[in-house]
Structure formats: C-alpha cells, structure tokens
Amino acid sequence: MMWLKQLFSRRRLYNDLSEEIQEHLEEKIEELVASGISRKEAAATARREFGNVTLTEENSRAVWRWAAMEDFFMDVRFGARMLRKNPGFAAVTIVTLAIGIAVNTTIFSAVNGWMLRRPRIKDPARVVVIVTTDPAKEGWGWDRQPVSAFDFVAGREQSRSFEAMVASEQQEFVLNGEGEPERVLGLRVSADYFNSLGVEAALGRTFLSDEDQSGRNRVVILSNRLWQRRFGSNSKVMGEVVHLNGEGYTVIGVMSSNYRIGVYGGPELWVPLVFPPESFLPTARGNRSLEVMARLKSGASVETARAEMAALSQRSEQAHPGTSKGWGASAMSIQHYIADEFGVGMRLQMGVALFVLLIACVNIASLQLARGAERQTEFAVRTALGAGRFRLVRQALVESLLIALAGGGLGLLLASWGVDLFRKGLSSTADVSSIAREVTIDHTVMIFTLGVSALAAVLFGMVPAVYQTAPGLHSTLKEGSRAISQSKARHRTQGVLVTAEIALALVLLIAAGVFVQEFLERVHTGFGIDSNQVLTANISLSNAGYKDPSKQVAFFQEAIQRLEAPPGVISAGATSTLPLGDDERTVTFSIEGRPALSRTERGRTDYFAISPDYLRTLGIPLIRGRNFLSSDSAQEPPAALVNQAFVRRYFPNEDSIGKRIRLDTSGLDRPDWSEIVGVVGDVRDSFDQRKYVPQAYEPYTQKSSSVMTLVVRTGSDPAAFAPMLRRAVWGVDKDQPIGVVQTMNQVMAQSGAGMRVANILIGTFAGLGLALAAVGVFAVMAYAVAQRTHEIGIRMALGARRSDVLRMVVKKGLVLGAVGIGSGLALAAPLVWLKLGLVNDDLLPFDQRGPVFLAAIFLIWLAALLASYVPARRATKVDPILALRHE
Amino acid sequence: MKTPEQRDLFPGALEMMILRTLKRQPLHGYALVQHIKRTSNDLLQIEEGSLYPALQRLLREELVKAEWGISSTNRRVRTYKLTAKGAKHLEHEVSRFERMLEGITRVLARGET
Fold this sequence. Notes:
The structure holds two protein chains of two kinds. By secondary structure, chain A is an alpha+beta fold. Chain A is built from 28 helices and 23 strands. In chain A, a hairpin with a 5-residue loop joins strand 4 and strand 5. About 1% of the residues of chain A have low confidence. Chain B has four helices and three strands, in the order H-E-H-H-E-E-H. In chain B, strands 1-3-2 form a three-stranded antiparallel beta sheet. Classes of the chains: A alpha+beta, B alpha+beta.
C-alpha cells in the first residue's frame, strides 16, 4: 500500500525536493562567494556545475512515480489540450479518419460474419467438405461441384482419412396440415449426419443409425423456426405425424435455433437420406447432387485427405472408364469452403476499403506536417528544456493516438449506420436477409476497429512525429517561424505524401471502375425478355398424387387455362426454369448424323420445358420456323426449339430447322430424337452472365416437369393479379402450395441485388477516396500558397502578372499529380488482369478496360487541377504592398 | 543529455557510497557531495543530477529518512539519516561489492602474469 501513500503525499515530496535543491544551489553560491567571486558569477558557476535543475528535479520526481504510466497520462492530457486548442484541425482529422475507419469496419463486419465466424458444430477445424472438381472450369472455386451418390459411397468405404463421411441433399417438401399448404426447404441427410458433426437436437433426438433403411426412414427433425411458426413451439408435436409430400413422417426432434452450417438460411426440416438402387450404377456418376462433409481421423490433415480423395477418384475413373472423364475430387476445411463463397469479392472490397483508410492517413499526416511550423518551435523549446527525442516522439504519437481513437469511435458509429444500409440493401428474399443478418458489429469487429485505429495512428503519426522532433533546434529557434515552415525537407515530404495520395486514389478509382464497368455491362446487355407487366409464381408438384407425368401435364394445362380466362390477362404460360429466377439447368445433347460421343464429350445447352404460350408471355421472339403448338402432345413426334446462340455454336453454316437433336434430360439416353422446329431469341440465364449461351426448349407436354413457374402477362399492374393467380391454382387443387408470387421485374431486381450492393459500396468507397485525395492536395497547395505569400508579393512587385502566378502554383499541383498518376498506374497495372470473383464469365477484354483507366486518370488529374487552382486563385489576389509590409 | 563519463561506475555504486557516508553521520545533500569529493581525494565527482534521484530512490526504499533542520552554518537543510533497514542493506551491498572486487582483481592479476 506504500504506492498509495506515495500517491497522496506526492505534492509534499515534490515541494521538499524543490526546496532542497534550491537550498543546495544557494549553499553552493554562498561558498563560491566566500571564496572571493562576485555573486553574479558565482550564481552562473553554481548553475553550470549543478547542471539542468529542472531535469534533475524531474528525474528525482520520476523515482516516485509509476513512471511510464504517468508520463503516458500526462501525454494524453497534454494531447487533449492541444486538440482542444485547435478545434478545426481536430475536427478535420477526426472526421477524415472516421470515414476511413467506418468504411473498413463496415466491410469487416461482413467479412467477419460471413468468412470468419466458425460453423456451429463440434470441433469444426476437423471437418472437411469434399467436392467433385469439374475439369471444364478452372480455379477460383468455380470448378467445385457436388458429389454423386456413387462416388460418395465409394469414398466412404475406401478412404482412410476420416472418422465419418456424411452426405446431404436439398429437397423441397410440401407440408400439409392445418392452414394453407406450404412449401418448405428440407435437407435429406445421412443417418449419422448429426452424430458426426457433433450436434444434438434441442428437443427429442437426432437420427438413429438404421433410420436410413427404407421403411424406417419416415422420421423428421424440425428446425426451430418451423417448429415455432407452424407448431407454436408446442413440445407435444414430438411423436406426431406430419404430412410431407403426402406421406406421413413422425416428428422425432427439434434443432436448436442457433444450429446452422454456413451463412445461408438453412433448411427448415431434416429427413433421412435414402439412396435409390439405381444411383449406385456407374452411369449415375454424373448425377452430382450431394454435399459431402467428413470428420478427419486424428493424425489425418486436410492435405492428406485431399491427396487421398484425388487418388480415389483417379482409381474410380480407371475402374469405370468413360463415366466421369477428367473429373477429380478434393477436400477443404469447412471454414475455408464457407469463406470461399465470398472469397474474391470480399477480399476486393476489403482491399478497396483499406485504400480509403490509407488515403485518409496520408491526408492526416500531411495536415500534421503543415501544422508542424508552430509545433516545431514548441518541440524545439521543449528539447531546449531537456526533453529527450523519445519523449517528444512519444508525445506526438500519443496525440495521434487520441485522434485515432476519437476517429475510431466516430467511425464505429458511422459503421453501425453503414451496416444498417448494407443489410437493407440485402433484403430482397428471406434467404438473402438471413445472410445479411450475419453482418453485425460484434466484439471481433470492435477489436478490429480498435486495432485499425491504433495502426492508423502509427501510420499517420510516425512521419510527422519524427519530422517535428528532428534535432537541429538551434536553427529552428534562430530562424523564426516562417523560415522553418519553408524548410525544404518538409516540402519534399509533403510532396511525397501528396504523390502517394494521388497514386492510392488512382488505384482505387481504377479498381472501382473495372468493377462497376462489369456491372454496367450486365445491366445494359439485354436480357432477351420483356419483363414489364409479367407476374410469376413457382409451383412444385411434390404431392404423391402427381408422380405420374400425365397428371403433371394435366395440372399445368388446367392451371394455364384458368389463368388465361379472367379479363386483363393477355397470355399465360409455364416454364420448368425461369431465367434470372432459377439456376439454369444444363444438359448434354447429341445431334443426329454426327459422330456419337460419350456424355462428357457432348455439347452442352441450357434446357427448358415450356408451354406454347411461354415465349409470347415473356416476349421472347420467334426468329424462324414455328412455335410449339398445343398439338405437340406426348403422342406426336418430339419437337424442340433452339436459340440463336445454339445455332451460331452448333449449326454455323447450315439450316438448323428440321435437324434432329437428343437432349440428355435423364440418366439414360432417350430412344427418340427431337426435331428442331424453330429458332428463338437469346435469353440471359442470370444477371452474372454477360454472354448468351446455347439454349434448347421442349414442350412440357412431351417432357413433363413437376416443378414449373407460371408466367402471366397482364394488361395492367401485374402485382394486382396475385389473388387471381392463387385462386386459379387452388381451383385446380386446393392442397397445392404456391411459392413466392412476384413480378418478373422483382425477379430481375433480385438477380442483380448482391452485385448492385457490392457496386454501390465500391463506388462509394472510390468516391470517398477521390474526395479525400482532392482535399489532401487542396490542403497542401493552399498551405504552400499561404507560406509563399511574401514571395508572391515580391514577384508581383517585380512585375509578374497574375497569370504567371496562377501558372506557377497550378504547375506545382500538376507536377505532383503527374508523378502520383505515374506511380499509381504502376500499382494498378495488375488490375488489367483482375478476374472478378463474382463473374463466372469471360472478362471484358483490355480494349474495353482501357477506357476505365483513362477515365480514372482524367478524374484524378481534374481533381489535382481543381485542388491547386483554388489556392492559386487566392495567390493571385495577393496585394504586393500588403504582402511586403508583412515583414 | 548524459555523456558516458557522467554515468555511475556501476549501478548501485552511488547509493552504496551515500549509505556508507550517512552511516558515519547524518548529512544534507550539499554536504554529501562535498564529503564524498573530499574523502575520495577529488577522484570521484558526484553529479548533483544523479545525487538527488539517488536520494529519492533510497527514501522510497526506506533505506534513509529525511528531516528538515538547521545546519551548523545556520541554513535550513534537509538532513538524511540511515535507517536500520539501510544499515542492513549497506552491509549486504558492501560484502557483495567486495566479493565482486576480489573477483575482478584476481582476473586482472592473472592477466598480468
């Protein structure tokens, strides 16, 4: 407790010390006087011999203190006082930094929520995801495909790296019972799925190991969400039978609300996964639909597992040649797998955000340097009084730290607003919202913000700190304040900072430009459809009563008839895959009369099964030949339509109409060929896709589908027709659930929503970066002009014209701009080849990216010009008489 | 700023000399400087800049205590006095120093032959 006593008796201690030292000096002086020197001389000698009184006192006091800590607090107090004394400087630096930090915190909360948060399963570090790799695609994760049942079972039996290997497959179920029939997303999982992941049910139990046997598999586990929504969180539901797709399942458990793998919304229920016997035929190796996870044995690593899976898939290819030529297998940690979903895009965003922060730091550093004139005198005086260099640097850094913390705090506030905007931007569907909900400011994000703030403090504080405290105090004290401020070294440093700032801003602009350009390309490439006044509704016939294809056809036929009836409806149709709404379905196909190829070597095309009026309803033009007719029934010879891209690719020099193709819509080759009866316009599958790809259509009457999207073209606002659509469907079957009913324009908006948010973000960042850089150049130029008022006055007195002065100042700005642009271009060069992660498509060639570079350079140049022009104008207003009288 | 010559001979040397001097008689700061200078035949110059921090350290460790009083020359002075703890510490330090000195001497002597 002594230190406590010391803390309170400190003042007396210090007073004693001061007095004692004074007395010591006095005694010394008196002694010297006694030896016969004059009193004045004696005082000087005593002082000289004693040394620096203040420093001695300080060092003596230091003994009593918890030195480092107290010095720090003193620095903090002093720093705060300095900032209060310069509210303008404090405000500008804090706001500048807050912008930089807010941008980083916002993006990091997304990175944290999506890529860093661990899956909520037992020991996730030991769990790997196993994927099939597609030889036709390369890198960036685009080659990752699900696994076939055949390969899964082979892998589970033959591999030695794993304790357990489990599979899951998504499936939609119709849940019947009280209330409207409802479609829910389910996951069919291996019986030991939850056991292997180490996850328990919150209520009841998970699956038993024999519940994947046919006959014992009618059990279901509910998600917490479904349990709440549909069963009122009633625990009596346990043991009850619910109806899924018309079949009874016994409820055995409810999962906890925080169980989730990955960031997507996740399934609403789980049932055991039972493989039909035909899925074990080698020919079924191409049916890849399983997501496979495995838990590593102790001793095995992700690398050894990956090597083993690759070897197994090679062996499998040799054993069953021609089934999956060139396809491999790989393993990666589950965390890595989840993070990769957001990989390149998020990294790019984070990089861009970092650049904004760097520009902000450079800005503050150069502001501090500009302010350095007065500070340098202050520091020189303090050095003269005995402060060490280290002390001064620390003092300067503590001041920077104060700015950084204030900026970080404000930045966190701004970021919470940014995160809000971010989440609002991602709210189009329940799935997207559930992803967006993961973006929060949690303690990891706060620690990140604190760390970034501290790092920023060092970044923008170090250069000025070292500069201002540089020795050479004699010259500083002698020269007077103006002379110092014009010191060459400082100007050079400021020049370097401005150059760096321009270079950073240029890189930022180019990166954003390339990104936005890809986006705009997609906005402006036609979609191939007329989306106005179209209502869509997804219908999935999963009730047991619709197993028979003719029943499916009958259902949709009647539904379309009912939809066409009401006044105000122009036409109605149905498609198995809605462009922009559903993931495209790709099939292989053969052309009659050309050499027979194995499946993996055949051509590929998007595939749609449609009703005759589908094309008219979506406004897809018929180019040549005829449309499907209602007479193209199952009894008639099969007909097909292809798009122009199909013709360009596969029939470049011949007439495609009348040719026959065979589309591989099932595991086995069909016996009959379909005749191409017409060519239709190209339609884009998704927002991400920029180029048109081959597409083929067949009449749903010949190739039925249990899942179709109804499309209705209306004469007025399509949303108002939603009740009519529901009535029509329920008129056919009152137990049939209806998926989301939305207009085609809504479907399109959602398709590009993620990319739009990303672009708004990156565009905003680039704008902020440019603005900060412009402010930085402006500040430095304005400062330089203010410092040169005297010199400009002399020049004008000697006959320089205003235009000369203007040119002189602007030239300096432009030279800095040119150097900055040069170094920025060197930094930005790799962006020419940057492959954007969210674009599963060809890159825009360089001749299209070139203009982006030019535009960015022009913008920066303009900013530098403007930022130096305004101060230059001010310089020409200098009145020579006043400027000289200043002296 | 300190130059090398101004540094202590080795850490603790100054404190040891102060304690030893105070063991003989209580003294105030100025007298301490004078005494050490005189006793060492002007070989050792005590810097006031180091003396006062050293005295504060000894005070803090309660090896000495200080009291305001009037000196023989009729000045108001702060006189330092060895405490029991200080005496013990001095004994310990001196024996440690002697052992060290002996060691150094031996090494130096060996070096000469």
